[in-house]
Task: structure prediction
Amino acid sequence: MTDLLDYVLRLGDDALIAAQRLAEWSTRAPEMEEDIALSNIALDQLGVARMLLTYAGEIEGAGRDEDALAYLRGDQEFRNCLLVETPNGDFGRTMVKLLFLSAYQLPLYERLSESADPHLGAIAAKARKESAYHLDHATQWTVRLGDGTDESHRRMQAAVDELWPYTHELFEPDAVTDRLGGDGVAVDPAELRAPWLATVLAVLDRSTLDVPSDGWRPNGGRSGRHTEHLSYVLGELQVLHRAHPGAQW
Result:
């Protein structure tokens, strides 16, 4: 696997699995407007995933399109971060996860829009506009629930505590990002930590939520080592395509 293929798959898989998780809220959100909002955010993530996975197929040159990469890979072939595959939990937990993810994706796409790879830069330029909305949406709900009732505050703090360890993986550089970063293609993940912290800590402060202490740091998603949760996500995502290979409708 080439460095560029690996990197594009990481971005595409993050968006794809995030979209699938958010889509689980369709018809289940706490109010109709939020049902529509989460479905739209899921579609935004899916749209970015489609562009990235299509580009990954072109880089690979093996005849695999976006559908093949989405539906016909096993869990160990996926390169998404562990954060996006974690279960939704309650609505507040989903908002915290969206806050953490969008606060990472926005500066990532902003910097990638200037990538030396013009195709990757064009995708990032489109995605950053949508990520800004995702961040704003998650911020509003985090503040509303964090600084809300005793029960909503308790749940939001629990969500922050549970999900915080998974954020460290987002900022871990490796040989792939080092080589591509040197060529001006990729973004050094470590450089995204400071803007992410500035954004997230400001939101947590407004939400009267405490910042967890750093400890356990799960990782492995970028190299195909995932939690058991990804298998269940892929089981639902891929079942129809695998049951009816080659079907068209």
